[in-house]
Amino acid sequence: MIRKTLPLAFAALMLGACDRQPAEPVAHDASSPATVPIDDQPPGDVPPATAPAEALASLRVNLPAEGTISFEGFGPAKFGGTDEDVRMAWGADLGDAKPSEPGGCYYLIPQPLTEAGYRVAFMVEGDKFSRMDVRAAEVTAPGGGKVGMETAQVEGLYGGRVETQPHKYVEGARYLRVTDPAGGNGVLVFETGADGQVSAWRIGVPPQVDYVEGCS
After folding, report:
1. Full-model pTM
2. Per-position DSSP letters for 107-119, written without gaps between them
C-alpha cells in the first residue's frame, strides 16, 4: 500500500510545481533610478530595470571629465584645431558628420544619441574646432557654472564679467556671456529660460560661440 501511494504523491507534487507561473516583473517608474551595471553610464540617466537591451545602448554616452573643458578648448583639442584633434581627445565614436559644403559648419556628436538628443556636441566650421555645446547638468563649465543654476548664481560665480543679453526667441530669457579671465579669445555663454534657470551653455571663439541657432 505504501509503495503505491508514494509515486502518486510524487506525481501530484510535480504537477503542482508545473502549474506555478513565474512572478511578474516589478515595473519601475522611469523617474526612479534602477541599478544597471554599466560603467560608462552617466549619473541621472539610469534606465528602468525593465528596459530592453537596445534601449540601454542609447544611454551609454560618456561625459567630459572634470576640468577638461576650458576657455582654450577640450583637453588637448584647442579651439582652432582640426576635426581629428577633437576625435582623438574624445577617444570614442563622434559620428561621421561632414559639412554640406567645403568649410561649412557641422557638429561632432557622441554616439549613439540619447532619446533627448545630444548632451555634448563639438562644432567645426571652416575645418576648425570652434565651439562646444553642453546640455548635461553633470558637466561643469570653467568657473563652476552648470545647467540648472539660477541667473544670480552664475553672476555670483563670474562677478562683473557677465554681460547679459536678451534671448532672440524667448521673452524673458537671457544669454549670459562671460569672457576668458586670462584675456584669451574664448567666450562662455549660458542660455537661460524665462524662469532664469540655465538650460544650456556653450564655450568657444567668436563668431561661432555667438551663433544662436548653432549650425542652422
Report:
1. 0.71
2. EE--SSPBTTB-S
